[in-house]
Amino acid sequence: MKEIIAIIRPKKMGKTKDALEQLGFLSLTAMPAIGRGKQRGIANEISCDIPPELLGQGKSGGMKYIPKRLFSLVVRDADVGPVVQAIIKVNQTAQIGDGKIFVCPVDDAVRVRTDETGEKAIL
Asked: Where are the alpha helices (DSSP H) in the chain?
């Protein structure tokens, strides 16, 4: 199993969720996030729940932190490729700030309600 962690533009979350649902991946965890990378600012995307004081101004006039959405889902190894490709297809604009995707190994999973483990816990 693998955990796919994606950091994307806030306005792309709905389309990303829809694309994953079409592939049969209904379960995910999502949250607002702020962060920074090489990107210095964003255009037409300031519809977020981040307090303005956290966004601030950086030394070069850019924003110190940029609002994003972070979500993760755990999938079978065989499903990593299609899931990653769906996320890329929806989020790729060829502009700085499109996001990042991380794929991490998952040793085990447990469904608390039933004590199911491994892939049975995530399906």
From this structure: 13-22, 52-55, 80-91, 119-122
Amino acid at 43: A
Rounded Cα distance, 37 and 108, in Å: 31
Q: Which residues are bridge partners to 33 per DSSP?
A: 68
What is the average pLDDT score of the chain? 87
Global pTM exceeds 0.90: no
Which residues have a Cβ under 8 Å from the Cβ of 4 and sit 6 or more positions away? Answer: 72, 73, 74, 75, 80, 83, 84, 87, 101, 102, 103
Tokens 């700085």 locate to: 96
